[in-house]
Design goal:
Blueprint lengths: L14 H26 L3 H15 L7 H15 L1 H16 L5 H18 L3 H11 L12 H40 L7 H15 L2 H14 L1
């Protein structure tokens, strides 16, 4: 069976060899946290939180399963981020693979489309919070904003947007719960849990209005505005 070994010896004294070793260590470090980074700087955060709000509002804690919702969120993220990924591939990845540019320039080029996407959905108020925490001088332009600080502010903005959408999702189901509770109270059926009675009506309402189509379409359009 073929095997691969990765060893770092201490005999590298030339600057070129030391630089290569540091690049390998940096690459391994980035690969270990790459999934978490990609999930936080893309549309995945907003989508998965909205799906969680929907499941709780409908009163079905285990349906759809978490794996199904996560898979759907990943597929939607790929579709939404396709223009950004295509631009990164055309301007950074392919020239780097063709050895036309170095990894430093490729990294700078790859950041530009992603930064433009995050700036589009990041509020200045959230960005100013991190500048106040770090006590850094306010930037004069978008190019002066560090990518790490932009990513942190983007996550906060996505959380606020997701919670706002979740609140709007809760309203019709909450009204339905109140109506069912009032009817049961008027009929004297106080021992029957209202959630048990309202759940079929919630499912019926969601299916009749084609809820998945409306929700997915609205989420996708929220990133295109």
């Amino acid at each position: 069976m073929p095997s691969m070994q990765l060893t770092l010896s201490g005999g590298a004294t030339e600057p070129e060899k030391v630089s290569v070793l540091l690049e390998i260590l940096f690459l391994l470090t980035v690969l270990s946290v790459a999934p978490a980074i990609m999930l936080t700087v893309t549309s995945f955060t907003r989508i998965i939180i909205v799906f969680s709000f929907l499941r709780q509002a409908m009163g079905v804690q285990q349906l759809p399963p978490t794996q199904i919702l996560a898979s759907l969120a990943i597929f939607m993220t790929v579709v939404i981020m396709y223009p950004v990924g295509k631009q990164i591939n055309d301007t950074a990845l392919q020239p780097y693979l063709a050895e036309k540019i170095g990894y430093t320039e490729a990294l700078d080029r790859a950041q530009q489309p992603l930064r433009a996407f995050m700036f589009k959905h990041t509020r200045e108020k959230d960005l100013s919070v991190f500048y106040a925490i770090s006590k850094m001088e306010l930037p004069r332009s978008k190019e002066d904003v560090p990518t790490i600080m932009l990513a942190a502010a983007y996550v906060i903005s996505e959380l606020k947007t997701a919670f706002t959408i979740g609140f709007l999702i809760y309203i019709p189901f909450l009204v339905l719960d109140m109506v069912i509770s009032s009817v049961l109270l008027a009929m004297g059926m106080m021992m029957l849990p209202p959630m048990m009675v309202s759940m079929p009506f919630k499912l019926l309402l969601f299916v009749m209005v084609d809820g998945w189509n409306l929700l997915v379409g609205s989420l996708v359009n929220s990133f295109l505005l």
